[in-house]
Amino acid sequence: MNRLSLRTLSGIAAPVVRPDFEPSSVTVGMLHLGLGAFHRAHQAVYTDDILARDPRWGICGVSLKTPRAIEPLAAQDGLYAMLTKDSEGTVARVIGSVRELRFAGADRTGLINRFADPRITVVTSTVTEKGYCHDPATGALNRAHPDIVHDFEHPGAPISAVGILTAGLAARKAANAGPLTFVCCDNLPHNGRMVEGLVSSFARERDGALADWIGANVSFPSSMVDRIVPATTDADLALAERLLGVHDAAPVAAEHFGQWVIEDRFAGARPPWEVAGAQFVADVAPFEMMKLRLLNGSHSTLAYLGFLMRHDFVWQASGDSLLAALVERQMVEEIVPTLAKPAGTDLRAYCAQLMQRFRNSALPHRTKQIAMDGSQKLPQRMWGTVRDRITAGAPYAHLALAIAGWIRYASGTDERGGIIEVSDPLASTFARIVADARGDAETIADGFLDLKTVFGADLVAHYAFREAVRSNVVALFRDGARTTLARHLGMK
Ligand code: CS2
């Protein structure tokens, strides 16, 4: 079968949607770090939507750690299918906005020099929470992280996102290529300000003049990104091939819903993403808090407790009446009261819409996928809400159970004694805590609750918080998730 490419594109027929611009006449105006499925189903689609109007904004997609994402796309001239799926069916669309591909490991100097192209004025990133090598509790650069240690020693051949960005900015400064905007698109609080802090502390240690130049020429707007994009499955590959009539080795599958709220603080020219529905606002914080606490917080609750209750997929977990009741009450009773209402948003309607999005069975999303990297994700998804509830003297019992669900999951065995492969930068720390506890649930809970880099010094020292989580961990080990949850909800 033929492969998707610029040559075969014209043969792809409706109802598959083809780019409404000529991909080969697009020039590159932005770089993207982290060419995973999320980027290809989100920022690349917003960009695809505006290229007919302004062909200056083609994307140079960069993969930092592995060539896996690059190779299939390179064989397809950067083209791939985006499948949007819900109960009404699937819509297939070919995305043509990724015009250049680079694997950092293949040519670091070439990549760094790309930042010095004056036509490139925007850099975006989706490198996942752990990709910024920061301390999750404080947001500061983790200087002990092996990639950061490497990059301080070899600033000209960096491997971390922060190191590559800093080296790229040094090249831009040397070439006098003008101001640049970096838009972080990962699920981190105040993500722009956070990355600015990381880059400026990394740069200052290298070269004070570079740090000053960055301060004067580079802006780091925060942004809230939203679209549920599970890992692509074999079924998606087969479906893309059937719908397109050509082989596509790199399709992405996602929901129809999409949201992108960006702080309007660009240092130079930018793509007109508002034409594609992005919102440019003065303050992203209310949107970001709503999304991280309600969507991502609920996702994590469904992932940990759902997995323990043997739900492989989010649509199953959110269709389980006990879990649905917990998540709904957690949102309405504990999270919503901590939020400022973002302009134009009805928070109750947002919660109801989330439950519907979670229940999209046409888009199976593995609880195990969301369960990854809890130590990096939960601080922004849950701790902030807990802190606000503590300050307000308000209860946080549902959150305490969800957090206990994470500890129970991260202890590495399921409820039938099977091994859970815990994927987390702190997995070996968790395994040590569990081994040292010799099966005692309270000791396991305390081992986790002592982790300052995860919980922060304040929560580690908060007696009532620890007790609330600890008693739930004990119940989860003793009685299992279903019984604990039913009792918690007064249904048993
Ligand atoms: C999920 C997110 O994997 C996860 O941790 O919670 O990827 C989530 O699907 C997106 O943030 C939705 O915008």
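^ D-mannonic acid complex. Residues 285-308 form the longest helix (24 residues). The radius of gyration is 23 Å.
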